[in-house]
Amino acid sequence: MPHQTPLYEEHAGAGARIVDFAGWAMPLHYGSQLAEHEAVRTHAGLFDVSHMAITDLGGERARDLLRWLLANDVAKLDERPGQALYSCLLNERGGVIDDLIVYYREPGNYRVVSNAATRDRVRPLLQEESQRLGVTCSARDDLAMIAAQGPRAAELVEQLFGDQAAAALACKPFQAALMGEVFAGRTGYTGEDGFELILPADSAPDLWRRLVAAGAQPCGLGARDSLRLEAGLNLNGHEMDEQTTPLESGLGWTVAWDPADRDFVGRAALEAQRAQGSPWRLVGLVVEGRAPAREGYTVHTDAGDGVITSGGHSPTIGGPIALARVPAAAKDDFRVVIRKREATARPVKPPFVRHGKVRV
To answer: What is the CATH number of the domain that holds 340?
Structure first.
């Protein structure tokens, strides 16, 4: 049986269609994926992301551990509590095990939020390396996580938390602050403003109900995926996996090459690929016609064939869009094979949509 988040009864009671996602019983939608997508773009949407894995690391060598394990450098957090960093966790070949967010909470104390689908891969790795370095590693399965996203998300947080919300509202993207027992990160996966709220599991249902009563629209996995695709955001197992590197996945910007004397898992493989030149690159595609370009479809280019990694209908643009891995030398003449027919596609630099506005 799939695991249930602390908010499962809220979803079931609201009539959500429940599906198994990475071993968790999660809402796919509450009746209309399109309405949920639009709510986030124009108002505020609510997502249960309690299936994500939250792990706290502590001790004098916690910083050293993360500087070794992650391709990005937690030293960038500059010892300012509340700062957050997006990074990839790599294998020795430079392949992406997971993408995650690290929060610096206080000296020697970090919080790692990683994906549900990689929980059984990432958690043991963190625990093993923590034991080796004498770092405490706590799996925070006692916590829940709610994402409030959209142009009115900040207004709802201020309405519900009053004076406690001041520090969180002052946060810039990739910063976090406490609102009582709620750890509020100014992060998300939709291309809109908002928060990811981490709090004790037994307090989550009440906060969820309060946010819904204040006007937030409960949203499921369907809208979460169409929103992240419009935002041009990678999905583990699609745009990246253990066989593809950040340089092939549009994530070269997350690799901290300096300082040169910082070694990290996968660095040697990435340096070799950078010197030789990555054979692949990730592009956005706006596809002609109405038929969606789905994952796995072939993309013909002037430099050889590529493949769609994620694709679907964009409610905001009103047509099909996709992310694709194509030969690095590809420049033009992009054609997606859809049901044995070719559809012309225009290569663009994601995001397709950001803060409710079409960018391509």
So the answer is: 2.40.30.110
